[in-house]
Amino acid sequence: MDFVATKVDDCRWIDIRRYSDTRGYLSVIEGNIDIPFEIKRIYYLYQVPGASRGEHAHKQLSQLMFATSGSVRVTLNDGKRKKSFVLDCPWKGLLVKPGLWRTLDNFSDNSVLMVLASEKYEPDDYIRDYQEFLKFKGL
Ligand code: TYD
Q: Is 95:14 a contact under the CB 8 Å cutoff?
């Protein structure tokens, strides 16, 4: 099962396609072309005060995260190893696989974190208890 086996190193940066000319930049993401899933949902986090968010894992959901403005730190944890990524540019996307505990913090002023998701919102896809997460991972 994907969830159990996923490691932090299975996540990777994706250079988001961009087109530039004298008028500036335009970036585009097409499902199943630029990222390995169909986009079923988009949500975004903004005006986050000095707090952390996330603190959960997903059983099935894959996501692409990127900051269209400002910067955000995303820390992924597979139960054995943690890895942090700073999302600070609109063409630097982080592909986040299911089966990883994630913490989002260090939101800069005016940051906007965009999340493209492979599934519609499904509360049962969440694991919000860290001990339960470790059990799911067989640890
Ligand atoms: P929550 O999962 O607590 O945010 P975080 O990703 O920081 O852990 O979500 C906050 C609220 O938004 C919660 O009431 C559920 C709701 N929500 C939706 O209705 N649909 C969605 O797609 C998402 C991501 C959240």
A: yes
Annotate 30-64 with b (16+ C-beta within 10 A) or e (fewer): eeeebbebebeeeeebeebeeeeeeebbbbebbbb
SS3 90: coil
Task: Give the Cα separation of 16 and 26 in Å (integer).
Answer: 10
Please write the tens of the pLDDT for every residue from 73-93: 999 999 999 999 999 999 999
The residue to mutate among 72, 121, 125, 130, having the most atoms of ligand 1 within 8 angstroms of its beta carbon, is 121
Ligand 1: which residue has its CA nearest to atom 18?
121
Choice from 39, 46, 53 to test ligand 1 binding pocket (greatest atom count within 8 A of CB): 53
Q: Is 56 a catalytic residue?
A: yes
Q: How far apart are CA 99 and CA 46, in angstroms?
A: 25
Indicate whether this model's pTM tops 0.85: yes
> 119-133 in b/e burial notation, b at 16+ Cβ within 10 A?
beeeeebebeeeeeb
Tens of pLDDT along 82-121? 999 999 999 999 999 999 999 999 999 999 999 999 999 9
